[in-house]
Amino acid sequence: MYFVEVILPLSLDKTFTYRVSETEYHYIKKGMRIAVPFGKNKMYAALAIDLHQNAPVLYEAKEIHEILDVAPLVNEIQIAHWKWIASYYMCAIGDVYRMALPSAFLLESETILSQKPQIFVDVTQLSDDEFLLYEALQHQSSLKVKDVMGILNKKNVFPIIQKMISKDLLVLNEEIQYEYKPKLVKYVRLHEDYVAESALIALLDTLKGAKQKEVLLTYFQWQAQEKKPLPVKELVDKANSTTAVIKALVEKGIFEEYSLQEDRVNFDKNKEEQNLQLSEAQQTALDGITSSLEEKEVCLLQGVTSSGKTEIYTRLIEQYIKEEKQVLYLLPEIALTTQLVSRLTKHFGNQVAVFHSKYSNNERVEVWNQVNQHSEKAKIVIGARSSLFLPFSNLGLIIIDEEHEQTFKQQDPAPRYHARDAAIVLAQSHKAKVLLGSATPSVETYYNAQSGKYGYVNLKERFGKVQMPEIELVDIKDSYFRKRMTGHFSNVLVDAITEALSLGEQIILFQNRRGFSPVMECLTCGHVPQCPNCDVSLTYHKFKNQLRCHYCGHSIAKPTICHSCTSSHLTTKGFGTEQIELELAELFPTKNIKRMDQDTTRGKYSFENLIDRFKNREIDILVGTQMLAKGLDFDNVSLVGIMNADNMLYQPDFRAFERSYQMMTQVSGRAGRSEKRGKVIIQTYNPNHNVIQQVTHNDYEGMYKEQLYERQIYKYPPYFRLVKLTLKHRDFDKLKEGSMWLYQVLQQSLAMPVLGPEEPAINRIRNEYIRTIMVKIPQNVSIGNTKKTIQKALNSFDVIPQYKAIRIALNVDFY
User: Fold this and answer.
1) How confident is the model over 278-289, as a mean pLDDT?
2) Could you tell me the maximum CA-CA distance found in the chain, to the nearest angstrom?
3) pLDDT digits (tens, 9 = 90+) for 707-717
4) What is the pLDDT of residues 518-541, one digit of tens each?
5) Alpha helices of 300-389 — where are they, by DSSP H?
6) Peptide bond into 37 cis (omega under 30)
7) pLDDT by residue (tens digit) across 616-656?
8) What are the residues facing 176 on neighbouring strands?
9) Distance from C-alpha of 482 to C-alpha of 484, rounded to nearest angstrom
10) By the 8 A CB rule, do 114 and 141 touch?
11) Going by DSSP bridges, is the β-strand pair 230-231/184-190 parallel, antiparallel, or unpaired?
C-alpha cells in the first residue's frame, strides 16, 4: 500500500493521508498539487508534502482523484518555511498554504448542473424559476451554480436546484476548474501563395478596397523595417483601420492568423543605459554593508530621508545578480512599488518581476512560474509581504525597505505573520543575506543592531548634500484663540502654500483620516449616528453623500434630520482628507488639487496615475493619508504640511509615540529632495510634546532611549514578547464568561504576566463582541514551551460545549 501526505487549503492544522497506486507513488514529487476528495462530495487541490507506506490509524485513506502538475509547484525550502510560520505564529498549516499560493492554483470544485438524459419533462408542472433553468439547459449542456444565480437573478438558488433534483430532472457533478489561461496575442502573416513578388503585384491590382490595400502596404512597410511578427492590434492602429478589414483579408486567404503566448507584464522597453554614480557617503555606506554582511546575516542601514538608499540597494543587487542569485525586494505598500519599479526597470530592464495583490490572478501565476523556473525575467522580485512565499530556490539577498512599517505585519486573516521576521528566517534557509533599510528603524531592530545581533551602517547626509527640511511648529490652539485660522488651515500654512505655489513648487498635505468628517452630530439632542453592526460612529463622506462604517462597510444616505429627535440642526465634528481637499479648492480655486487615500486608489492603476501626474507636475497640491508618507520621491515638493499631529499621539497603543515619530519624520522627508531646502509645517495643539520636539530636532536617538526605558518598565518588546488572544462571539454574556475562564486557566498555567480579559476601544465589529487577553513572555523564557501551554489551554477551552462557538484568533508578536 502506497500513500501520499497532503496539505489541504482549509483552516486545518493537520495533514491528511491519501492512497495512491505504485505508479503514482513513483511519479508524485513533494510540492506537486493533487486533486483529492474531502468531505462528502468536495474536491480540493491539495499539496503533496510526503510519500510513505504507513496507513492512517484513525480513518480509511481515500484514493486521490488526479495529479494536477507535471513538476513541483512548491519546493522543499518553502514547505519547511510554511511549517515554521504555522508553528511560530500558532496557525493552521492549511491557512499558510491557502495564503501563499495565488488563488488560481487553489482549484476548488465548482458544482456543475446538467439535465438528466433521456427523460420526458412535463413543463406545465414546473414553476417559473424551474422552467427558466430547464430552458437554459436546453441551450447549454451544463451550468455552474453562479450561472444559475445570474439566470434567475437570485442569490439563494439552492432550494430551486434541490426541488429539481428531487423531481429527478437534474444531476450534479463536481468538476475542478483550471483558472489560469496563458495570454495569447493574435498575429498575422502573408499567405505563402503571395510571398513571390509577381504574385504580390497581381494581388494589389485585384484588390478593389482602398482600406484593404492600405492594410497590406502597412504590413509590407513593417516587415521591411522590423522583420518580426506583427500583432493584429498593432496593424489595426498603424493602418488606421478596423479588425473587420483584417478579417476580410483572412477570409480571402491573403492573410493567415496565428497566436503566440506572451507575458502579461514586460519591462524591456523601460531599460535605459545609465551609469550609476554613488556619492562618497553612499559608497562608504555600501562598503560598510558589504563588510558587515560578510560577518553577520542581517544588516541595518539607517539613512536619513532622501539619502539615496535606493541607489545603494541597486548597486548591491548588481553584485548578487552577477553571482546568478535571486533577489527579493520587500516593500510595505503597493503605492511604493509603482515608483521603485520604474527606477529599477530603468537599470535592470526585464530582469525585474513584480508581485502584489493589485496584480491579476493570471499575472501572479506568471511571476510564480518565472521564479520557479529560474527565469531571466524574475532575477529581482519587487513585492509587498505576500511575495515572501514565491518559490525561490537560489535566493541570495532580501532587501526590506522601510522595515519599521506596521503593514509588514498581517493582522487578518491567519497566518498573522510579520514579513520582516519571516524573511529573516527564510534567508537563513537559503543561506542568504538580509538588508533592512529605514530612516526611522523600529525600536526592536535598532535594539538588535545596538546589541550586535545585526550589523549597522548609518548614512547621515542627504544625497547631493541637500539640507534636511526646516520644521516649523504651529500652535493651533493659540491660532484659533487669536482668530488666525481659515477653516483647518493656520495663516502660517496658508502663506507658505501661497508662496510655494507662486514659485511653481508642489505641496503635500498629510491628514491620517479619510472621509469628510468622522462624526456627524445633532446640535439639539447630541445624537451621533452609529453603525448597527459595530461599536463606532459612521464617517461622513461628502463626495458620495453618505455615512459609512470603516470597519464593516455599512452605509446610509446622509440624513437631513436627526434620527433621534427629528431636528434638522446637524453638524460635523473632526475632519478628514475630503474636507481638506474642499477647503483647499475654496482657498486656491485655480490650482489642481488631488486626494490620495483608500477611496481614490481602489483601481489597479490608480496609484500609478496619481503618482505619475504628481511627478509630471500636473497636480499642484496632493492631500493624503499615510500612504503618502513612505519612501516616495518627488523632486519639486518644497512644502509638507501635517494638518493635525495629535491624532496619532493619543492612540491606546504602546507603540503610539514610536509610530507618531516615524510617521511625522517620514512625511517630513518628502520635502526639499533636490537643491532647495524644503519646509515642513506641523500643526498641533501641543507643540511642547516630547515626540513633536524630537521630530523637530531629528532626534531619533532621544526617542529610542525614552521608548526603551518605558518598554522595560511596562514589560513590552524588545524585553518581552507578546501573544494576544482575541475572542469573538455574538452573545455578550457568553463571551464574558468564556474569556474569564480562559484567562484564569492561562494565569494559573503561566508564571508570567497575563493581562485581561479586556474590552478593546472598539468592542463590537460586524455584530460580534470582542475581548482580548495579552500574554507577556520574558526574553529568557522558552517561547516554544509557553506556546504549548497556551495551546493546551485552548484545546481544553474547545472541549467545553458552551464555549465551542467562541472564535479565538491568536496574534504572536502582536504589533
Assistant:
1) 91
2) 97
3) 999 999 999 99
4) 999 999 999 999 999 999 999 999
5) 309-322, 334-348, 361-372
6) no
7) 888 999 998 887 776 677 888 899 999 999 988 888 889 99
8) 109
9) 5
10) yes
11) antiparallel
Q: State the Rg of the chain over Cα.
A: 31
Beta bridge partners of 777: 721
Q: Do the bridges between strand 489-490 and strand 485-486 make them parallel or antiparallel, or are there none, so unpaired?
A: antiparallel
pLDDT for res 262? 58
| pTM score over 0.85 | no
* Distance between CA atoms of residues 498 and 495, nearest Å: 5
Distance of CA 471 to the CA centre of its chain: 33
Are the CB atoms for 18 and 52 separated by under 8 Å? Answer: no
Instruction: Give the up-direction half-sphere exposure of residue 233: CA atoms within 13 A in the CB hemisphere.
Output: 4
Pairing state between β 621-624 and 593-596: parallel
- Across all residues in the chain, what is the average pLDDT? 87
How many whole angstroms separate alpha carbon 747 and alpha carbon 340? 48
Gap between the Cα atoms of 559 and 566, Å rounded: 10
The residue to which cell 480579559 is assigned: 757
Q: How many helices (H) and strands (E) does the chain have?
A: 26, 36
CA 333 from centre of chain: 7
Is residue 110 predicted with pLDDT exceeding 70?
no
* Separation in Å, CA 575 to CA 482, 491, 581, 744: 21, 18, 11, 43
Which residues neighbour 482 within 8 Å (Cβ) at sequence distance 6 or greater? none
Cβ–Cβ < 8 Å for 378, 353: yes
Cell of 10: 482549509
